[in-house]
């Protein structure tokens, strides 16, 4: 399966502003890219790439005062398989976890395990450990929160989402991560592309999506508390403890977002399928057309 994906983002800055973007596809999937543009900016500015402690590609540049755009377009090959399900996957005792997983047991900016530990054990302590317990957590979050883009708030934590019972995909992810960590199950935050492939088109506008990965039986498995069903065509952009570690744009100074276009769809069927409702699929980069 071929998936076309990309973005066009425009911001306004009152003065020259240093920015770090985390929009590049993870290194593990770079070999699957069959065609791509460079990361383009308008006006053109030099950019440089470095990798953070989680292996995410971070791009540095300075956005000049006034209007500024950053753009990218690619075609990537995907297996077309849905997220792996392994109902027999077991929890790994804390003492046996690999060193790199231990940090994903701890509380973080949006995942306040100290506030939610008692509740987590009350809700999930009697559920058999392993896949069943994680799925019960994901089911709980999926049913607890109502999704809506109008509910977005950058400062909402997992505990606040639980109390308010609303959120966007990052809130679903933060709450599921927190409850898993409270149960001594390593969980990490993931964002990336997720189109409506193999499912009915979502009438809500497309966006980058957030989901979680949970460490069971020696490997990381994907769970998605917002959709709560295995999905096809995830393309990971970044991983971290929570949304703090993986901002799409981190500006060292104020900026205003004036345009945010995302596209991700199955390339093979695009010409024969209707456009997603509410999604502007106009691609400002024609190098792959």
Q: How does the SSE layout of this entry go?
A:
Elements lengths: L1 E12 L3 E5 L11 E4 L3 E3 L5 E4 L5 E7 L2 E12 L21 H4 L10 H12 L6 H14 L1 E2 L10 H7 L1 E2 L1 H14 L4 E7 L15 E8 L2 E5 L11 E6 L8 E3 L4 E11 H4 L19
Parallel strand pairs: 8-9
Antiparallel strand pairs: 1-7, 1-15, 2-6, 2-14, 3-7, 4-7, 5-6, 10-11, 10-13, 11-12
Verbal overview:
The protein has 289 residues and is of the alpha+beta class. It has helices spanning 99-102, 113-124, 131-144, 158-164, 169-182, 267-270, and strands at residues 2-13, 17-21, 33-36, 40-42, 48-51, 57-63, 66-77, 146-147, 166-167, 187-193, 209-216, 219-223, 235-240, 249-251, 256-266. The protein folds into 2 domains: 2-80 and 247-270, Immunoglobulin-like; 94-245, C8orf32 fold (Roll). It contains 6 helices and 15 strands. Strands 1, 3, 4, 7 and 15 form a 5-stranded antiparallel sheet that branches. β11 (209-216) and β12 (219-223) form a beta hairpin. The longest helix is centred in the middle third of the chain and has 14 residues, at 131-144.
